[in-house]
Predict the structure.
Amino acid sequence: MRFWLDKGVDGYRIDSMNLMSKHPDLPNAPIVDANSEYQSGAMYFASGPHMHEYIKEMRTEVFDKYDCMTLASWASLKTRNQSQNMWPRISMNSICSAQVTSSTWTLGWIANTDAMISLWKITKMWQEAMLRFDSWNAVYMDNHDSGRSLSHYASATAAKMLATHLGTLSGTLFILQGQEIAMANVPREWNFEDYINVEGRNAYKETLQKRSEGADMSDVMRELRLKARDNGRLPMQWDGSPMQDSRGVSNRG
């Protein structure tokens, strides 16, 4: 950490910060769903007993010695009470909760049809919590692990609406590369072979195996087009066309 701060970086975003304190014996998770091949082991690796100890050490030994900004990416803060217990102890400038992107999905790879309502509830909770607990929000809708909000909540014609929504919230605004020119998800013409991310490919293959070769997979492809991580990792799109120029991106000098 000191190496890069000495090089002049302005701070750190620490991914999955609540997963840094794990059970030392790495035990197997208990079987709670006999029908599932995998079981959740979160009780052994999420928000462990030494988590705040490690975070405090980073703060006192490194961050406090530099003029830097720190952002914690967190997966499990879901209620106002959890926020109240967390903020006085977190030792970070801000927290980026995964609720915003995960709210668009129910279990597995099924889209949440009430995503807009969920977004409103989550936004309301965090905006009120920031004032109540004297904290500071990380405001965002897209990240590199999810589909793009423009494709899920609306269409290209609603980009200004979503931008206005984000820009009028309290906190520090974070945008994903391409969001500033209203980039959407991958094209509908993409086939399964075009997707690269292993999570999406595995979900497709597992479903196909259950259904047998040649089965209709159009519903799975729909979920891939909405959720696959490939969407958030598309390269910046511009070609100097008039439409691109109107979005503020041009190859002209």
